[in-house]
Amino acid sequence: MSQREFVSYEGVKKTYDGKDFVVRGLDLHVKKGEFLTLLGPSGSGKTTTLMMLAGFEAPTSGEIYLDGCRIDQMPAHRRDIGVVFQNYALFPHMTVAENIAFPLHMRGVNSTDTTRRVSQALDNVRLSALSDRRPTQLSGGQQQRVALARALIFEPKLVLMDEPLGALDKQLREHMQLEIKQLHARLGVTIVYVTHDQGEALTMSDRVGVFNDGLLQQLAPPTELYDAPANPFIAQFIGENNAIGGSVVEIRDSACCVLTPDNERFWAMLTPGVGVGSRVSLSLRPEKIRFSPEDTTGLNMTKGAVADVVYYGDHVRLRVKGCGCEGGLLLKVVNAGRLTELAPGTEVVLGWDPEDCRALLLH
User: Fold this and answer.
1) pLDDT at 336 over 70
2) Residues 6+ apart with CB under 8 A from 105
3) For FRET with 349, which of 2, 148, 211, 225 sits at 20 to 30 Å CA-CA?
4) DSSP strands (E only) in 71-180
5) Which H, E and C letters describe 272-296, residue by residue?
6) Which of 189, 165, 202, 196 is nearest to 86 (CA)?
7) What is the pLDDT of residue 2?
8) 269, β-bridge pairs
9) Could you give the 3-state DSSP secondary structure of residue 148?
10) The dihedral of CA 54, 57, 58, 64: what is its sign?
11) pTM of this prediction?
12) pLDDT in tens, 270-316
């Protein structure tokens, strides 16, 4: 390519045993100033991808570039990259300020500049009042802020974060997600972030790369991943999803008609590779389904019986048996009070727009 993005993986592969590849032919490009998250289940290749960029693992083949410079054969300490780990990796015998200053000391920065930059870094993560404490005297969230400040203090070209919030409880984790996102917006630094938590990825990222079995399955903004999944794996992994199996029997323009094993016919949007006769999985998000009168036109219609009702306060989740879907359809409906009256066994008619349903090719 004539002009590379800020970070570029080109044909990168990684195997530890010479037989099985944990990363297979990766081409991935990260824009300057972007917040990119690598998401996937355990063993999908996302962490290995990050570690090759950091310099802690070497690719078996392929090339990695940072800001136009090839770095895959460069020692980790020369790459000008900040790294934040899940376990913080703070020095217990040093104070907060000393931990943050450590990268500057290693780079020979003079004491005046070090003092100024540490003070600024402490302000950025709102820890100025705790500068003389040891890591053991801090909460998990405070320790994570110290690790963030240390990774940013030497103004690296790139910051990598490997499951940095994995050790925190739910409330603190959500608070730190917001803190990191705000810090990114304020500083404009490029961040590559690894997580297995889909909610975290969708909340924080400009784009998300979803990995499975060593392959990058889809790279897109969060809204596109959710609304337009590229394949059945993405549809099931991102958010909640109803998967309805069937075969394509008709195509009209950008839509197709799918016949299910129960002889129900549903219209859905075409996706690449789908043709008449293709075996597909229809992807339908629970919140797109609604209760419908039987004479409604233009909708996919089906009947079923309520199997269970779960109250969540602001919304109600219902499982409706039948409907041409194994296990029934999951609905997520805003709570308007009357929904709690839908007892198990109640017969209902459901409908959804064909535009809200995607026919994804099954291999």
Assistant:
1) no
2) 114
3) 225
4) 81-84, 158-162
5) CCCCCCCEEEEEECHHHCEECCCCC
6) 165
7) 47
8) 255, 358
9) helix
10) negative
11) 0.89
12) 999 999 999 999 999 999 998 876 666 778 999 889 998 888 888 88
